Predict the structure.
Amino acid sequence: MALEDIPRLGCGRSIDRIWATLNQPPTAHEAQCDQCQAARTRLKGLSEATRSLREGDLHNPALKPRPGVTNAILDVARAEVRRSKRILLHRTDNGTTEISEQALSSIIRFAATTIPGIHSRRCRIEIRSAADSLSGEDNPTGNSRTTTNAGPHLFVNLRVAAAAGIDIPRTVDALRREIGNAIPAGVGISAGTINITVEDLYDV
Amino acid sequence: MTGPGKAPRRLDAASDALLAERAGDGDTAAFEALARRHGPLMRAYARRLTGSLADADDAVQEALVRCWSQLPALRDPAAVRGWMMRITARCAINVLRRRKYDIALDEETRDDPGPGPESRAVTGSSMTALGKALGRLPEAQRQCWVLRKMGGQSCEEIARTLGISTESVRGRLARAQATLIKEMEAWR
């Protein structure tokens, strides 16, 4: 589309130009030009109607997504979560027990909600699983088929935002204890190493 | 994913940045809160772009799936709303391309839910006129106008979304404005 296709007023000014400067005082030409003044008035009316339409759409109950749409999306999301990384909790001759990283993350996030002044952010969990701990030098016999006591050693790396003004060392210690209790209580394995990074402060 | 015994609604007061980070980390409760918060605007935006609530639903569904899968790569979690709207716009345009959609006035009017009760009481008249005038615009002009004026995208972003030149975007915008002004004047 060529620039000359942009509609112009009889005085030569383009509508594009007038719209772009609508929030500024009129130029010397615009202040004296009847066509420009009329265009500015009409464009201001259009701008106001647009703002109203945008706000109206936002609060219009008829435009809220149908529950079915949201639920369908969440089903997709949950299905992906179920396919996320698994952590081997326990191995016996009769089979293995695994837990998804997301399930462990949810326990950690929930523990964080009980500590005032802390908002959890990203959580990454690294593991040395039961199988890992039985390989190599930890398991010189190479027998990894049966273990009932060796559990995974977790390395929890949690990033949080803290309320401005709180005692960060004390609060983070409380958070670490809470996570340290929540994981064994929730899934029956030791919490291992819990690294917490306060990466942001927020106003209360 | 929701914590044990934790109601998802507890996240409704959390900031966009916090929700985006947690959703990017695989927290479906945080993602649900984001979808609940921005879903109405996404659907309204998609509806203005496509002219159809049915197409808007398809676009929003596709957009939310994309948002979920792409959230881990979002660089600025605080800007998640604009990011979700850009994805919504791209999905709405894709829906239109697939359908080869051509909106007829009667269909536009039938599908238009009109302003909500509060808005209707305050500015319903000009909103209704603008809504109907938008529905009568040629599709290419309406897309540019909605992306620019309702979505806040720059001309360069619109050009990338639609696969056209920036000059074409400016031309379509100007002609859309001229038409809308005439339509609204005629309505008065």
